[in-house]
């Protein structure tokens, strides 16, 4: 079958099943097992205690729908495109680049790009990173005032979201200097981050491949000025994650403290390499290696597992069913783990910057919506905020729950039991809802009668039949975080292939940057072009008057 035929059949399938109660599917006692995947499987996971379970049984996907979705992946050439990515083919066709971030987490592998093995450089950089991290952690690299106590990472987008998310997620494993992150060009971010730090014991990492990113370099200059007020040689307390050795040298950073990466590593896929240096310093090289190993084992699974049991592929197919077939425009990512508070923001960039496109690889207009709006917050906080809309609002929001079976604080095990009870309850409530008769009984017990009883009952009805998936794992460790991040990376890749778009460029970020450069002089009183639109002119007038 052709892709268009399969899409048409999926649309017809949606018409048949979308109103069906998800809960009725559980009349089949084997449904939960049939519509879930364990990775990497009990025997393989035993050595690490790192098995995860992906349960998508609380969706309206049945066997016929799943079969069609798998046929969709096959017809779109997911397997061939996947193999081309790992082989170093230039699948980022609009920029003429390979996509080899997976090589960063498999340093013992061998990958050829244009006939040259790229892994020697990967291994050399990783070795240098390990040595630098050990020196910082052990006191061999000090500040003017003594051993490094704090590390400030300055970056934006992929140079910030990944390591910031991972450092928070792996807080129980921190045994190095404290890590802080500055990304926003808003001066408040730098001011608030630096106010309690000692410049004499702070290491600053500037993360910019070209060393020209305007937000990052503006913040870097500000932080260097802050440090220069107390430190005689501020450059000695800087490191750079960049490939622009001439610019880092001009900034005063010694070449041995510059860690570069190639153009085949996209920003939002980059924390596996030098962009992860702050994480390596925080948790140590050995645990960073565990993080890489988690990503590598997910890579191996993605490359070899049949589509019917391939976790990234299934996660992608569920997402496509909800967004592109059923038309649900948003996706809520709901980690029941406070330390994963930054995961929804990280996945926002991963999904929306990758797949927020309107043309196919051939330059034609897409025929279906592409990336959904991805958002979320940790549970249980969200339950007291936006879950009202998820449960009783008029739009359906597919939910993706993530939770660990156990926490890191055994003395607070009762907290974790309550957390688990809540996440299990939420997915069950979304599916089952509450009908009018049950709501009427509740209102009657509360003392309402007559017309008021009916009115009050209707306010207590939950429509239910709202889909969710759950990813559950033993504990959030460096290796497990690596698996989760790689899982979502490959999910986004699979969705992009099926939609026929390039997930690895991001031209949509460029226009705003260009306009900002042209508008900044106007804020300083420069002459305005005659073609300036009235709204922007009015806003400039307001700024001038307020200043």
Automatic annotation (TrEMBL):
Originating species: Rhodovulum viride
Family, as annotated: Belongs to the GPI family.
Molecular functions per Gene Ontology: isomerase activity
Subcellular location: Cytoplasm
Pfam family, one: PGI
Catalytic activity: alpha-D-glucose 6-phosphate = beta-D-fructose 6-phosphate
InterPro entries according to UniProt: G6P_Isomerase (IPR001672), G6P_Isomerase_C (IPR023096), Phosphoglucose_isomerase_CS (IPR018189), SIS_dom_sf (IPR046348), SIS_PGI_1 (IPR035476), SIS_PGI_2 (IPR035482)
Primary role: Catalyzes the reversible isomerization of glucose-6-phosphate to fructose-6-phosphate.
HAMAP family assigned: G6P_isomerase (MF_00473)
Gene assigned in the entry: pgi
Listed pathway(s): Carbohydrate degradation; glycolysis; D-glyceraldehyde 3-phosphate and glycerone phosphate from D-glucose: step 2/4; Carbohydrate biosynthesis; gluconeogenesis
Protein name from the UniProt record: Glucose-6-phosphate isomerase
Active site (catalytic residues): 353 (proton donor), 384, 513
EC numbers, comma separated: 5.3.1.9
């Amino acid at each position: 079958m052709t892709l268009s035929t399969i899409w048409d059949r999926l649309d017809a399938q949606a018409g048949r099943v979308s109103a069906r109660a998800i809960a009725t599917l559980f009349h089949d006692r084997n449904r939960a097992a049939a519509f879930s995947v364990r990775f990497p499987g009990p025997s393989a996971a035993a050595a690490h205690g790192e098995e995860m379970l992906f349960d998508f049984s609380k969706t309206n996907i049945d066997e016929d729908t799943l079969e069609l979705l798998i046929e969709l992946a096959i017809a779109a050439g997911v397997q061939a495109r996947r193999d081309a990515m790992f082989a170093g083919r230039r699948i980022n066709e609009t920029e003429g680049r390979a996509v080899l971030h997976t090589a960063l987490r498999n340093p013992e592998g061998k990958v050829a790009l244009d006939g040259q093995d790229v892994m020697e450089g990967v291994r050399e950089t990783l070795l240098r990173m390990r040595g630098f991290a050990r020196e910082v952690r052990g006191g061999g690299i000090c500040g003017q005032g003594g051993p490094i106590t704090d590390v400030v990472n300055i970056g934006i987008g992929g140079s910030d979201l990944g390591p910031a998310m991972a450092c928070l997620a792996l807080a129980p494993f921190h045994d190095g200097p404290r890590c802080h992150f500055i990304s926003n060009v808003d001066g408040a971010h730098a001011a608030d981050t630096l106010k309690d730090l000692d410049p004499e014991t702070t290491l600053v990492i500037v993360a910019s491949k070209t060393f020209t990113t305007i937000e990052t370099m503006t913040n870097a200059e500000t932080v260097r000025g802050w440090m220069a007020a107390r430190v005689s040689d501020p450059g000695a307390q800087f490191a750079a994650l960049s490939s622009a050795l001439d610019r880092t040298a001009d900034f005063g950073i010694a070449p041995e403290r510059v860690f570069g990466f190639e153009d085949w590593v996209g920003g939002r896929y980059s924390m596996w390499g030098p962009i992860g240096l702050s994480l390596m310093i925080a948790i140590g090289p050995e645990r960073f290696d565990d993080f890489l190993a988690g990503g590598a084992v997910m890579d191996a699974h993605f490359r070899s597992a049949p589509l019917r049991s391939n976790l990234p592929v299934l996660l992608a197919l569920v997402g496509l069913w909800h967004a592109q077939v059923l038309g649900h425009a948003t996706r809520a990512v709901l980690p029941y783990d406070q330390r994963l508070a930054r995961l929804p923001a990280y996945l926002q960039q991963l999904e929306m910057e990758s797949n927020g496109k309107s043309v196919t690889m051939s330059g034609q207009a897409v025929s279906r919506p592409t990336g959904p709006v991805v958002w979320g917050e940790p549970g249980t906080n969200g339950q007291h905020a936006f879950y009202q809309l998820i449960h009783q609002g008029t739009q359906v929001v597919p939910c993706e729950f993530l939770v660990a079976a156990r926490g890191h604080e055994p003395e607070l095990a009762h907290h974790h039991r309550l957390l688990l009870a809540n996440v299990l309850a939420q997915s069950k409530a979304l599916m089952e809802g509450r009908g009018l008769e049950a709501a009427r009984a509740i209102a009657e017990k509360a003392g309402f009668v007559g017309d008021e009883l009916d009115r009050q009952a209707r306010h207590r009805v939950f429509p239910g039949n709202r889909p969710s998936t759950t990813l559950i794992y033993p504990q959030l460790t460096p290796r497990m975080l690596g698996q989760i991040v790689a899982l979502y990376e490959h999910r986004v890749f699979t969705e992009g292939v099926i939609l026929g778009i390039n997930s690895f460029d991001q031209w949509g970020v460029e226009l705003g940057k260009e306009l900002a450069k042209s508008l900044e002089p106007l804020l300083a009183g420069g002459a305005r072009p005659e073609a300036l639109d009235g709204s922007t002119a009015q806003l400039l007038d307001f700024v001038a008057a307020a200043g």
